[in-house]
Every structure is written in C-alpha cells, then in structure tokens.
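Per reviewer request, we include the raw input and output of the structure prediction for the construct analysed in the revised manuscript.
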Amino acid sequence: MLQQARRPGVRLRLLATFQKVRHRYDLWRAICQAISIGILAAVPLTGLIQFDAWRGDHRLLFERVEVKPAIGGVLVGIVSLYVIVFLTNFAAGRIFCGWGCPVAQINRFGERAQREKSRWRMAGTLVVATVFNAALILSMFAWFVDLRVLWVGTSATLTAWSIVLAGLVSAYGHGRWWRWGFCKSACPIGLYYSIVSPAHWYGVHFRNESESCIECNACDRVCPVDLAPRDLMAPVEGQGLGASDAPGRNHCIECGDCVRACEWMMNAAGAEPVPLHLGYFRGPQCVVPEPSTPEPVGDQVDPANTRSPARPRP
C-alpha cells in the first residue's frame, strides 16, 4: 500500500479543533517529557558521567577520572540510554518516539505556534518552546562541558554561548519547517525500529466489531507520519528511510493523535463505542471494511448488504 503524504494544514486544523479541550494525553506526555529531560540532565549534573572539555574536570561514578575513563563513561552512558529506549520500544512499540522523544515535542511546539491566531498566544507558545529547547540543549551540553563556563567570563564563554544559541536556532528551525519529516524520513533510530518490528500486543488498534466507525477519516488526516491507523498491518511503501514494505505498525510512533481525533469525532457524532484505541490489544485486530457490491433483491437493492462487516485480522 503506497502511503501518500498529506497536507500539513489539514492536520493543523484538526489539532486546533480537538485540542480545545484538555485530554488525558496532555498530562501523560508532559510527564514523559519531564522524565526524559530530567534523566538527560541528571546524569552529568550529578557527576555520574561527565566529560569536561573546558577544565578537564572529568567525572565517572561521582569520582574524578582521567580522559580515557571519562570518554568510556560517556560512551557507556549513551549506549545505556539507547538500551533503555530499545527495551521500551521492544516491549510496547515505538511509544518513546511519540511520548518521550524531545524532538517530537519540538515538533508539537512548532505546530502549536503556527496554528495560533492570536499573536499573544503564539508569543506565549514560543516562550514555552524556547524554555523547553534550552533545557534540552543545556542537558546535552552538560555531558561534555561544565555549565559554569556560560557565566565565568573566560574566553571559552563566548564559544559556549555560540553553541547554545546555534542549538536554539536549529531547534526553532526544526519545529518551524522540518517537524515530522525528520521522524518519518531521517531519524536513524526510527529507521532501526521500523526494521526490528516492535511488539504487536501493544499500540494503536482498530476494533470495529459493532461497525461504529463513522468513516470520517480524521484518524488518517491527523497522523503525523502519514499512516492509516485503521489498518497498520498493511505494508507501507515510500516511508523515508524505513524498511521497504514494512507494515505500518513498524512506522507508527504511537503518539495517540489518531485516537484523540477518533474520540472527538465519535463524541461529536453521538456514536459509540470508539473503534480506535491505544493500549493493549483485546481480541482480534480488525481492518477497514472493504466496499462490497450491493446484492439485488428482486428489482431492489438490499440496504443491509451495502456495507461489508469488518474482517478479523488473521
């Protein structure tokens, strides 16, 4: 199945509609982002692992060490963080990509700033985004340089501030223009997870047993990586660096936007139950019903046969 890129404006309009009301996902995502930034900052700031390129005050397990052990510690720390992310994704799919990855949050800040009609609201969003971006950049910077270099007034201070400001500009540019294109077509970790095939017992799943789906296609249009949430087991072609013909589930970042859109549209239509879910699978996975040819009854068309039922996923 060839997945076509969708216009970002459609997604932004949908986000502006259903994000007027607070959702449980807002709090969960904020907690996940706080944990990610907190871990990233705590490792060097506590002296657990730090390579200090400024004064040579290297730390490993809270003790001063020489250059080689410090470099080894940084490498071990990076690999350890990656292993944690890998185990999380192996157990529950690419859930880190949609909830804990700071790049995804930068994308969301960029979208929020673009869809704000009020200049004051847009300015407020940019301020919050700048604070978040600064926290991320300083947390990464602290792994390699003591942050005190930023205010001691030495010759290295100007260089340090130049690096930080360059990072802020890059983060703003990413959130303003590239956004999910990076996650879909350039993220090396995303490429890896699209190949290893994450867990199939947790994620976005479509169960239309009572045929409650109103076929509004909001879930398709709001997906940030251009997937079809109602049929994630179908192969997807042309998904950036992802493995060719890998199922959509391998590319799904499990951000929950499709589920949130589905809940909003179903509530607005007064229909139930919500057919799209993010969580543990319960029962057989279903796919989008295929159109069927109405069966004639005499000279009339039987309306009961104008829509085929959802088929269980084998």
